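Tutorial handout. Part one gives the primary structure; part two gives the three-dimensional structure as tokens.
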Amino acid sequence: TLVPNPRIHFPLVTNAPVISAEQAYHEQLSASEITNACFELANQMVKCDLRHGKYMACCLLFRGDVVPKDVNAAVANVKTKRIIQFVDWCPTGFKVGIN
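Part two.
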């Protein structure tokens, strides 16, 4: 079995930002706004409350004109504000991809 803990139930998927095609051409969102939107309940594809669970890992995939410095600052902001909690045995938790 690859599940090290019996309380780990399922992966969570979030798409952010969820905007119309018309808005996509003139909407300017920062990496921080996109990252924070990933942890909002309205953008999740699974109905559950993030405040009552812990993460093993978090993978953020960015597309488009995104600067790595801004992404690193956004991830650091999420870590310092403790928006989400990670399990004790995996405190780093974030993996970032920029395409």
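Part three, for discussion. The first strand starts at residue 58 and ends at 62. The chain has a mean pLDDT of 83.
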